[in-house]
Prior knowledge:
By secondary structure, the protein is mainly beta. The protein has one domain: Roll (Surface presentation of antigens (SPOA)), CATH 2.30.330. It has 2 helices and 4 strands. Strands 1-2-3-4 form a 4-stranded antiparallel beta sheet, with no helix packed on it.
Amino acid sequence: MDDTQSTKPDFAGPFTSVPVEITVSVGRARPLVRDLIGLGENAILTLDKRVEDPVELFVGDQLVARGQLEELEGDQDGRLAVRLIEIVTVPDGKE
């Protein structure tokens, strides 16, 4: 059994096969418009995170988890993945 299968909750129902898009955020930048306009090829945009900092996983605009980026090996060599390190508790009734 691989890591993705080991801690799956046992849910049943018609919505379990609906795909959900997850956005992974590695950081944010807040440049001034004048600086943004001046960006060109090979420009560097500094983010508010370090390489070793956790990434954030969002469904829509809701933060749902944090994780560490990893590079896959084998037949998926070079592809990125996220190892979950924290599941964020969403308060009931929050929209």
